[in-house]
Write a structure and sequence with these properties.
The protein is 32% helix and 20% strand. The chain has 237 residues and is α/β, with parallel strands linked by helices.
Length: 237
């Protein structure tokens, strides 16, 4: 199935489609690997941030098999729930299961969760740890929720104004209807990435994207903040 680029998207948004989930995962993994290789050709280390959820698992598995100097790659998460890796909701556990194996086992992983009693209490330690990574990010792969959130930047949540304005690398935040606290990379840290990809699948996510471009309000649909700059959007039915 070929889906034309939505007319509401700007010229600086690159629209890429595939026929199905597996094809999209393979093409995105090849693209990310190529961009990491290019970064490593001109600098000692490269950095990658990925998102959690069900959508990226096949892509992460494909990426783990790509040949590049993984021992020179720093990997982190776009966001994380404030739970340890034994929790079923842990994004770190997902990344270790699907990405940090095969060739990518040699990468250096920087988790967002630490042992502090809350995300707010752990923010300073997380910030300090992340500073050991290569910044700005070379490659970022985002997802998007049905409410237009990306990373853990949620519509109208109390932390959103600070998340959109802070120069810090990370910020404690929370989904409006979820009691689990979260740590997210800030909008600044995310938007400074050299290559930004949005990985979405299905007609419902496409409608959310189109609604975000029509609404033009980065507080009500935070993904709109990213659509306003160069963004590679990868979609399949």
């Amino acid at each position: 199935m070929t889906q034309p680029k939505p007319t509401t998207l700007a010229s600086h948004n690159h629209w890429l489609t595939a026929g199905n989930h597996d094809q999209l995962a393979a093409s995105l993994a090849l693209c990310v690997a190529a961009q990491l290789r290019n970064a490593l050709a001109s600098q000692p280390r490269a950095s990658l941030a990925v998102s959690g959820g069900r959508t990226p698992t096949a892509m992460l598995q494909q990426l783990s098999q790509q040949t590049l100097d993984w021992h020179r790659v720093d990997v982190t998460l776009a966001d994380e729930r404030w739970v340890d890796e034994q929790h079923s909701a842990s994004n770190a556990a997902l990344v270790k299961t699907w990405l940090l194996k095969n060739n990518a086992e040699a990468a250096t992983f920087y988790p967002l969760y630490n042992q502090a009693g809350s995300a707010e209490l752990g923010q300073a330690q997380c910030q300090q740890q992340l500073q050991h990574m290569h910044w700005p990010l070379d490659v970022l792969v985002l997802g998007m929720g049905d409410d237009g959130h990306t990373a853990s930047l949620f519509p109208l949540c109390p932390a959103l104004p600070q998340a959109l304005s802070t120069q810090d690398l990370c910020i404690a935040t929370q989904a409006p209807a979820d009691p689990i606290q979260r740590m997210s990379l800030s909008a600044h840290a995310l938007m400074q990435a050299q290559h930004i990809h949005l990985h979405i699948e299905g007609a419902a996510k496409l409608r959310v994207l189109q609604q975000a471009t029509a609404l033009q309000d980065g507080n009500k649909t935070p993904i709109y903040n990213f659509i306003q700059q160069p963004l590679n959007i990868h979609w399949c039915p």
